[in-house]
Write a structure and sequence with these properties.
The chain has one domain: Transcription Regulator spoIIAA, CATH 3.30.750.24. The chain is 42% helix and 32% strand. The protein is built from 4 helices and 5 strands; from the N terminus they run ββαβαβαβα. A 5-stranded mixed β-sheet has the order 1-2-3-4-5, sandwiched between helices. A hairpin with a 6-residue loop joins strand 1 and strand 2.
Length: 120
């Protein structure tokens, strides 16, 4: 399941991932991202991941295509999860994308993650 999390700031995309991500769910989030990119030169992403059971191949390739097309349009990403493997991947991702600042937060620090993603 992939669902939006609202933020007051329009340049932030908030998401909650629980379970498996399917292509139809990804399409809805991609439409939100594209809409926000039409209004902002750069976006920030806030993601809560209480559980992750994988991603369909179709959703994976759609995510990859969008990421490659817009990689330079994202400036910050906060990932809130207690899953150690996701925390490690999050740290690694920050080194792969130039100009993208990425931080992982445990679920107990959800408020700190929100504050960090909203800070100038």
């Amino acid at each position: 399941m992939l669902e939006p999390i609202p933020f007051d700031a329009d340049n932030i995309v908030g998401l909650r991932v629980a379970g498996r991500i399917e292509a139809g769910e990804f399409d809805k989030i991609a439409a939100i991202v594209e809409d926000k990119l039409s209004r902002h030169p750069k976006l920030r992403v806030y993601v809560e991941v209480p559980s992750f059971d994988g991603i369909s191949i179709e959703a994976f390739f759609k995510d990859l295509q969008m990421g490659l097309r817009h990689w330079h349009r994202f400036e910050k990403e906060a990932v809130v999860t207690d899953q150690a493997w996701l925390q490690r991947i999050t740290a690694f991702t920050g080194h792969l994308v130039p100009g993208l600042e990425v931080r992982a937060f445990p679920t107990t620090d959800k408020a700190a993650a929100r504050a960090w993603i909203e800070a100038a």
